[in-house]
Amino acid sequence: MPRPGIILGRTETALIAANLVTAVILSLASPYFLTLPNLVNLIEAYSVTTILAAGVFVVLVSGGIDISFPATAAATQYLAAYLAASRGFPLAPSLTLAALLGVALGSINALLTYYLRVASIIVTIATSSIYYALLIYFTDAQEIYNLPGWWSNRFAFFRYVTASDDVVKITLPIVVMIAVVCLTHYLMSRTRIGRQVYALGGNPEAASRVGINVLGVQLLAYGYLGFLAAVAGFIQAGRVHQAVPTAMAGQELNVLAVAILGGASLVGGIGSMGGVVLGVFFLAMLQNGLNLIGVSSYFFGVVVGLAILISITMTGFAEKHMHRRRVTRSA
Amino acid sequence: MQDLAHDVGGTGHSIRSQLDRVISSFRGGAVNVGALLVLLAVLVSLFSLLMPTTFPRGSTLQAMMFQVPELGLLSLAMAIPLISGGINLAVIATANQAGLLMAWILTAGMPQEASGTTLALWLAGALAAGFLLCIVVGLVTGLLVAVIGVHPILVTLGTMTLLHGCSIYFTRGRTLSGFPDALILVSNETVLGIPISFIVLAVIAVLAHVLLTRTALGIRIHMIGSNLEATRFSGVDTRRVQVWVYLISSLLCWLAAVMMMARFNSAGADFAQSYLLITILAAVLGGVDPYGGFGRIAGLFVALLILQVIASGFNLMGISPHLALASWGLILLSVMAVKRIAGALPHGRRARTSSQNAPVEIPTASKS
Q1: Which residue of A has its CA nearest to B329?
Q2: From the CA atom positions of chain A, what is the Rg in Å?
Q3: Using a CB cutoff of 8 Å and minimum separation of 24, what contacts does B244-248 make?
Q4: Which residue among B159, B328, B360 sits closest to A121, beta carbon to beta carbon?
Q5: Which of A18, A159, A213, B365 could be bridged to A208 by S-S, CB 3.0 to 4.6 A?
């Protein structure tokens, strides 16, 4: 069960500190950094990553790993685009069918992991190659450009013109991202099923002994990620005005890295939505800030790699320290 | 099995039970390899029946032997960390970075008109530089895994991102090409119809097999994969073993880099990205336990042949390579399902539960 410390644990505190320090440095280095248009653009640019990271976070907390979600996102995106653009389906049925496909593909992962008793990383490597291969085969890797207007038009929920005549738009990606983050946070910290996900990840044996439906919880976690992959696929296609079967290829480890940077653990049972958001925001700020300062965008990978290594080194030593304290106390 | 016991004699009796476990895994592995060989035979006969004129021919076999070595070496680089209970997600990134360094020396450093001894020295120098780079990468990865005690998935996710980032930064995403003809010629050379690269793979596979089964280090790699804590408490310096694992893995990446360079006549930061997950797929299909402790090189080798036979067969039949990839995934899942059913039978190998070094596992409710 999540201890109070998990809501605002060590990682979150460290991330808040890192975020603040980065923000201060960047705003001193570039006057444009701490302006409303820049921050809103930054958030919109990372909306797809955040939505995916929220789903990956739930699976990680349940003690599993899923790397098939980019394939799911691409497949659902393509299905929706096909229905909407080539078959003339209206908004609701296209999106519903895409979401159902996402949930179904996620559930297949859960069922295989549960019944085959194979590490979820292996199952999802296999399903990822199957989903992707079939998608590319059936679509011939053809993009769909003629998305209907309700999809590709940049709809602003809120417009604001700053004193410097910059237009700030709160667009659909931002609204959906905030909704997903709130929903995931509520699900994981305020509901029974959320507690069960933590319990399963924390100690699967104990969880099943106290009567938690392991298959049910796994179906929820992987199905939820499948659903969010569909949402992310929809948003991504809207941002780039086309559906591309290979749009998300290679994103799996990036998103996983973001979720882990945010404090979700591969061991399962720990992590918080807030931490994951802080992790995404940290990377978003770094990328954006480096651009503003004039550092080559090619340098970003080096920065992310170093951030991951530093973060896990700190976590590793902190865990060792805690472990040693516990041992000495119990002795 | 006497010599096995002899090899680890230095660590005394306390590891007897671990040793028994390792030995029984070798027996289990033998069954596994047999089953994979049957699958390979079935696939070969199936394709031969479907394409009697094109498939069962020397040229097809030779083409397959040209294609398998890079994936083979990268899969070996993945399999050894997997057996030790870890993983090395940075295999592709390491190989690409080493390839880029060697390519950079050969294209930017070496004078165009170099020939004879000068050329040989430049080539040797480039290879040595790549080798040194891989030693550094392996040592750093191994030390991070051993000292921090964080799961290797995280460490190598970090090193992968960092190495790939460096490669992208230095090359700006461009590829380097145009190497001395000598390098290309050697890679196209065959001995008795067998490509040199395949011979290298075979020799390395035999060496890896000997290393894993006949040396103290190999037994210890299996042991830390089975139970890291127990191995440490039985007097083995597990951190040393972990450093060795990632060092060996990185050096295998170097060899793969040399082959990739010679075969593609270029090097780039984004080469062979799709191989990363396939190396894991090949290793697990070959019977390597993703939780560590079990796995045989022979199984991996047969698994690679299976994957290549499917790819070549589909290719000759004019079936999309994407369907070959899908069938690889399906075969892996089917093999897992067969193992699961066989494991559920009485006297079968019991389903393994999570151990400390297997945090990615989701053990399920009921255990047999």
Answers
A1: A126
A2: 20
A3: B244/B142, B244/B217, B245/B80, B245/B81, B245/B84, B245/B86, B245/B142, B245/B221, B246/B81, B246/B86, B246/B88, B246/B138, B246/B139, B246/B141, B246/B142, B246/B145, B246/B152, B247/B135, B247/B138, B247/B139, B247/B142, B248/B80, B248/B138, B248/B211
A4: B360
A5: B365
Q: What is the pLDDT of residue A327?
A: 56
The torsion angles phi and psi of B271, rounded to 5 degrees, stand at: -70, 145
* A316/B163 Cβ within 8 A: no
Q: Any residues with CB less than 8 A from the CB of A231 and at least 6 apart, and which?
A: A51, A99, A102, A176, A180
Cβ of B161 within 8 Å of Cβ of A204? The answer is no
Q: How close does chain B come to A233, measured CA to CA in Å? A: 21
Rounded CA-CA distance B20/A153 in Å is: 66
**Which residue is listed with tokens 């292996």?**
A122
Residues in chain A with pLDDT < 50?
1-7, 331
Token pair 């593609």: residue? B264
What is the pLDDT, as a whole number, of residue B362? 38
pLDDT digits 0-9 by tens, B101-134: 888 888 877 777 767 777 788 888 888 998 999 9
The rounded distance, in Å, linking the Cα atoms of B247 and B210 is 17
Nearest to B329 among A130, A303, A309 (CB): A130
Neighbour tally for B77: CB within 10 Å:
30
Cβ within 8 Å of residue B114, ≥6 positions away? B122, B180
> Is the pLDDT assigned to residue B76 strictly greater than 90?
yes
Average pLDDT over residues B196-207: 90
Residue B117: per-residue pLDDT: 79
Q: Residue B361, Cβ neighbours under 10 Å: how many?
A: 25
Cβ distance A117 to B158 less than 8 Å, yes or no, reads no
Decide: residue B100, CB within 10 A, 0-12 exposed, 13-18 middle, 19+ buried: buried
A137 touches chain B (CB under 8 A): yes
pLDDT at B298 over 80: yes
Neighbours of A153 (CB within 10 A): 12
The answer to whether the CB atoms of B273 and A205 lie below 8 A apart is no
CA B1-B80-B164 angle, to 5 degrees, is 175
Q: Provide the residue type at A108 as one letter.
A: I
How large is the ipTM?
0.81
CB contact residues (below 8 A), chain A span 185-214, against chain B? 200, 204-205, 208, 214
Per-chain mean pLDDT for chain A = 85
The three-class DSSP label of residue A159 is: strand
A138 in Cβ contact with A254 (< 8 Å): no
Would you place residue B361 in the very low, low, confident or very high pLDDT band (cuts 50, 70, 90)?
very low
Judge whether residue B100 has pLDDT over 80: yes
Question: Greater confidence, A12 or B350?
Answer: A12
